Structures are given as C-alpha cells and as structure tokens.
Hints:
By secondary structure, the protein is of the alpha+beta class. 38% of the residues lie in helices and 25% in strands.
Amino acid sequence: MGLLQFPNEPRKFRQLREWARTQFQQEIRLPALQRLGGEATDLGILIMACSHCGLPTSTLHVFSDLPLDLSRVELETSLRRLWGTERCGWKDAYCANCHSTGPRVYPVVAHFGRVLPESGRDLQIEVLFGDSRILRMEYHRMEPDGTSTPVGTPSDELAFLDSFQAPLSMRGLWADFLGRHLSADQLVTRQVQPGYILGLRPFTEDEREAMAFYAGFERWIERRRRELPFDTVTFFRDREEDGIPIPDEESYHTWLPAFAPDIQDALVDPFIVADSDSFIRVLDEVAARRGVRVARASGEDTLFARFTAGEVEVRLNVGPRYFRILHSGQTFHRGVITHFAKEILAIKAAGDLAPVLRARLPGLRVRVREGKILEILDAHDRRLFCDDVIRVATSHTVQNEAGLEEVVRRILPGTNLEAARLAAPPRD
Ligand SMILES: [Zn+2]
C-alpha cells in the first residue's frame, strides 16, 4: 500500500476513498478476474485510518463461504454483519505504521467484489463508514477489462439483471419475476444469460384463457430460434406431471413457496426456454479452466457430452443434470459448478495419470485404451495391468510422490515390476 497523509478533511477522505477504489479494482479484482474468470472468489478490502499517526491501513478479506444465491438485500445484510459494529470485522485492527490499536484506528471505507460469471462483470459494493458505523453502500459495475461505472442501487433482482446482465440471486430473480408479472395480460419472458430465458404464463383460473395466452408462443420461439436453436421448453409443473427427478429441497416448492400451490395447480405457469448447446459451451468453459474439454456428442434428441483430458475420453449423459439445473433455479455457470466440478476434477486427474506413469516406468508401455482403460504392458506386450483409468486416478492421490508410489505398488506389485524392468532396459 502506498502512503497517504491522514485525511482530516472531507476532501482528503474523498481522495482516500477514490484511491482505495482504484487499488481494489486494479490491484485486487482485475488480477483475480484475469486469473480465475467466473470463478474468482469473493473478496473485500477494509480501509482504516489512524488518528494517531495519520496513515491508512488496509486489510484484505477473503469471503470463501458467502452463499452464492444471496439476494441484494441478503448480501448487504451479510456485509453489515461482517463489517458493521456488531461483529469484530475491524475492531481488532491495528495501525501497521505506529501500532496503535482500539478506537484510534477506525474504518473509513470498505469494498466488496463478486464476479457474475454469466456476464463476466464484477459487482462491487463500496461501504462508507462515518463515526465507525456503516453509513451507506454504493454500487459499481466493473467490466472484464477493468473499466468501472457507478450504478444505482438495484431496487430488486430484475433491476440487478438489467444493470449487470447477470442475476445476483437466480432464485430471488424468479420470485421477483413472478411477483411483477403475475397479472400481466400476455406471456412474459426474460433472458438471464445467452441461451437461458425465463417465461411466465400469468395467473388465470380460466382454462380457455390459459390456452389463449400461448397463441403467439410459436411465432415468438421461431423468432428466437433465428439466433440459437433453443431446443428446450420445460415447465416447472413438468416435475410433477412428467416425473422429472428434482429433489424436493431443490424444487420450486422450496424456493418459491408463495407461488408453489398455484404453480402445481397450473393457475400460473412458469417455464424455461433454453438452448442445450449454450449449456454445453458453459460446461466447456468451466471444464477448460481445469484442463478438461467438453463437446456435444449426441444428436438433437439426447444430450450426451464428451469430456476429454489428455488420452482420457468419457462420454456422459448430461441431460438429467441439465434439467435439474434449470428446475432448481440455477444459472448454467452455478449449476455446472454444483453438479459437474467433482467429475471434471476426476477426469483431469485421470488424464494426467498416463504421462506420469510413463515417466515413472521406463521400459514399460503405458496406454489408455478407448479413452478409459489404463493398460501397462511389458517389453513383450504382455499385459501387466488393466483397469478403469478414472477409478485408478481417483482412488489415490496421484499428485504427490507418496500417492504415486502407492499406485505403482498397487498396479505392479514389486517382483513383477523388477522382472518387467529386467526384461526391457529403459529406453531413452
Ligand atoms: Zn498509526
């Protein structure tokens, strides 16, 4: 941190605030976004001033456990709890320069940043203190290139989506969307990210009127299909009617309790129009950060994807999880992290295994057959080992020496290995 004179006048406070904002954006958020993209962690910085020596002190806060579906109001409440007077967010602070502690070191401003992976933008909340209390919060939107704009406090989740082109709380967005358009006079739709549109047939108790709402639907979807295939139309009540396996605690019954009875009785009919290719693109984007590539591997009626890491290739039916994500009020990005992160890591570990074993076992032939069977052959092409490569990679910690040793011992018990090595001197 650079040095600043103690800001004992409003003008200097303003300078300190602006300096803190620039530091936070350029030195903290931008590098995090460039390195981790949509998976950058929530971060905060708290700037305190010391009334004894006049210098500012800052502390970095890593918020690794803030829930990701907080609404704007819930997020502000969390920040108040963390930085406000009830908790010791700053009370135990001390001045790094003169080592003063206690009330001599008081908070001036704090910044919070959360990336919105659906649009790549960063939500930043500037928390202003006065007399050691939080006075107010101001919103800023930072683009992926680091330019930032102050924006008004979003009045609800729909306004947030307008401002950031991504939802803050997807479930909160659904609730606000239903609340606002419940008595609209036509079908209402709203895009949350490319390839993902919320839809609502407004409330009616008259079945004929309900049908009439869909009169223009075909024409509407034809128009949308000029941009993207939009191969998916699914209704929340399909969960009950078609038996889509969504656990109760993830279903709309849990996070739209006020609307759930009317949805189930089809008095109001929320639906989703989505494009499975866009979903696969997000899956690939998230997996690629972990060294795995994903591509669609099916026709129009099914949703299979091929996951590739090194010589490992796995074809999975991702359809059920795709529907689960749509029906549980998650964006593509949050849903992929929730439902695929573990699998992606396993495939990555499997992809790393063959080259590591090859280096480890000179003179033996290590190969991955059909993208999934790990085979080890001796110099005479006798098979010494054969097993599912993902199972081998995930049942040991192959990233460290001890784990690797364990794998080698397991797949090639000692004597066997020596014999194999003798049979074939190491190649160079
Ligand atoms: Zn000091």
